[in-house]
Design brief:
The chain is an alpha/beta fold and about 300 residues long. The chain is built from 10 helices and 13 strands. About 40% of the residues lie in helices and about 25% in strands.
Length: about 300
């Protein structure tokens, strides 16, 4: 059964006159009559009483009219919703993010999206970089916010969103807490807490290489923690000093101290990434909200 047949039937049922209905449908009466007869044959019942002077709905026709109108309304609603989805004004959008994004620009981005695109349903998932890339490939998420260090972004579109520096967090009683900036030489006898290498191997390797240069004895690196809360807890417990993104230090208070690093470390970068093949309007609309936040530092 085709929607066109239902539309023809509803038009005739409203007019109860084949010639007027044909005029409304911009067609001749003969093919309209043929289409209605074909529909009746398909349904195995008559929908109209026809005489030379009048056309009336049968009991089956009256029942079928309400059902046909409901189907046509639902089809029109689906058509409109599809248009909205393709235009990016409604639909679902799955967003992956990491902790640095959550600590910096992401709340503002999400608030702007809710304000400007209220009919888009946001689905948020906190994932590490490797997990986000896998989800982008299989379509589980539409947009990801990742650290791009050492990542092959072939097949993806991307936009640099945020850049910040590392800081060192230590116990206030640490001898280095008296210094304004920490040098590479200062780290020779220190236990340094980093995020676990499995979280982002490329970023971990870049960081440890930079912290081990200049021919000095390397620090002792610990990689027990997967997030800033665990790293700061380890500092409080006396396991060493932690190297964390600057945005992770906002809530650091006594008995911990934050110090700048006079060491050429790679910056902490976050990029918005989405699949080139994803043509959903919701993705385009969401990405259009991001340029104000790009190249933040």
């Amino acid at each position: 059964m085709e929607l066109t047949s239902l539309y023809y039937f509803v038009t005739v049922a409203k007019e109860l006159h084949f010639r007027r209905a044909a005029s409304i449908l911009n067609m001749t009466q003969s093919p309209l009559s043929t289409a209605i007869k074909k529909l009746e044959d398909e349904l195995e019942t008559e929908l109209f009483y026809r005489t030379s002077r009048s056309v009336k709905l049968t009991e089956a026709g009256e029942f079928f009219l309400s059902e046909a109108e409901a189907v046509l309304k639902r089809a029109e609603l689906a058509r409109n919703r599809l248009k909205q989805m393709l235009s990016g004004t409604s639909g679902k959008l799955a967003v992956g993010y990491n902790e640095p994004a959550l600590n910096t620009f992401l709340p503002q981005v999400l608030a702007r999206c809710r304000k400007n695109l209220p009919d888009i349903k946001l689905e948020l998932r906190e994932l590490e970089t490797s997990e986000q890339l896998s989800c982008l490939h299989d379509g589980t998420i539409d947009v990801g916010f990742i650290r791009p260090s050492g990542i092959d972004l072939g097949g993806f579109e991307s936009l640099m969103i945020y850049r910040e520096n590392y800081r060192m967090v230590m116990q206030t009683g640490n001898k280095l807490a008296k210094k304004e900036k920490i040098t590479r030489k200062d780290l020779c006898d220190q236990d340094i807490i980093l995020f676990a290498r499995e979280v982002n191997p490329a970023a971990f390797d870049q960081l440890t290489t930079a912290l081990s240069e200049n021919g000095l004895p390397p620090p002792h690196f610990r990689q027990d923690a997967r997030n800033k809360h665990s790293m700061l807890a380890m500092v409080k417990a006396g396991f060493g000093a932690a190297i964390v993104p600057e945005s992770c230090c906002i809530e650091v208070t006594h008995p911990l101290t934050v110090r700048a690093l006079d060491i050429p470390l790679p910056p902490v970068e976050i990029m918005a990434v989405w699949n080139k093949k994803n043509s959903a309007g919701t993705v385009r609309k969401f990405i259009s909200l991001l340029p104000e936040f790009s190249e933040n530092q």
